[in-house]
Amino acid sequence: MPLNPKLHHIIIGEIKKLLGKKSEEPLSRYQMAKGTLVAKRVLWNAIRNALLMAVGISSAAFGLEGFLIPNGLIDGGVTGISLLTSRATGISLPILLVLINLPFVLMGWRQISSMFAIKSIISIAVLAIVIATVHFPVVTNDKLLVGVFGGFFLGAGIGLTIRGGGVIDGTEILAIGLSRKRSLSVGDFILIFNILIFSVAAYLLSIEVALYSILTYLAASKTIDFILEGIEEFTSVTIISPHSKEIAQMIKEKMRRGLTVYSGKRGYGKSGENPDPTDIIFTVVTRLEITRLTGEIEKIDPNAFIVMQSIKDTRGGMVRKKPLNHE
Fold first, then answer.
1. Which residue from 94, 151, 281, 288 could staple onto 128, CB 3.0 to 4.6 Å apart?
2. 277-286 sheet: strands from edge to edge
3. Which of the following CATH numbers is that of domain 234-311: 3.30.70.120, 3.40.50.720, 3.30.1330.60, 1.10.260.40?
4. pTM, rounded to two decimals
5. CA 261, CA 239: separation in Å to the nearest integer?
6. Closest CA to 220 of 151, 309, 304
7. Closest CA to 81 of 196, 209, 240, 236
8. How confident is residue 12, by pLDDT bands cut at 50, 70 and 90?
9. By mean pLDDT, which of 45-59, 96-110, 281-295, 302-316 is the weakest?
10. Is 202 exposed, middle or buried (CB count within 10 Å of its CB: 0-12, 13-18, 19+)?
């Protein structure tokens, strides 16, 4: 059945936008096919991001309602401030989550992107609605279990929401903004921010509550790291050897990894300067493959010079990780 002319016109217009074409330019069959493929990818990404954010919001709400709120524990960041303020003043937590996060979301609009800010405010608003309307059962009253698993579910929720392109806790946006104006790093600001929160919690509530809340924060932060960075940690490996061709072939055929070869020049050594150029191999492997890689290199050249560095993420190539989506 043919498409409605208006709908067809809208689809063609969106494809032209994706391809960066002017509205009056006609599209070839190749461009139409390419544009359709790009549109499908954009649609799939939007659906995936929405699902990630939905699961993330549900997980965070469960962590708060099923563990933290009934047992009087807090977390770090803006969520912790909201919980602490709610306990101290009696103001509804859903209202505080929206009000306290709002300035940070506006900061994200200016510093990251408008789409990021829109996704974030939607995520925070939906989280507030879920907490206000859906009441999860209390899972346990054991403070240790509450700290560990409350932090786990809250951290999973925050991490999944970030994977979907938004946030439900604006602390990191604030830290990024302040770090650009001061000499401290993002991590330093987050640490100072949370020390202040837990110090106030110890004063207003009790030292015991503050200590269990620190445990909650540690569980949440580790879970966020796990969700964002994955179970695999990548290592970049630089190899300098006169047998570079054999090593490069081994990496491609046995390790099945991509690599980059670039030319270098040896510096001064025991025998003076060596003017002959040498090939330098750069590749990225997971931590589980390091032992195998170094073993294979040793078979080819026991004297090869190898430098290894831990890296957080990779894009493209033969080693890939889940991307963050802020667009």
1. 94
2. 259-265, 277-286, 234-240, 305-311
3. 3.30.70.120
4. 0.72
5. 10
6. 151
7. 196
8. low
9. 302-316
10. middle
Q: How many residues in the chain?
A: 327
Q: Is residue 310 over pLDDT 50?
A: yes
Q: What is the mean pLDDT of residues 24-45?
A: 68
Q: Is the dihedral of CA 106, 224, 67, 176 positive or negative?
A: negative
| Dist CA 127 CA 62 (whole Å) | 10
pLDDT computed for residue 114 by the predictor: 84
Across the chain, mean pLDDT equals 82
Burial class (CB in 10 A: 0-12, 13-18, 19+), 110: exposed
Alpha-carbon distances of 253 from 246, 249, 294, 296, 302, rounded to whole Å: 10, 6, 15, 12, 20
**What is the residue extent of each domain of the chain?**
5-45, 47-229, 234-311
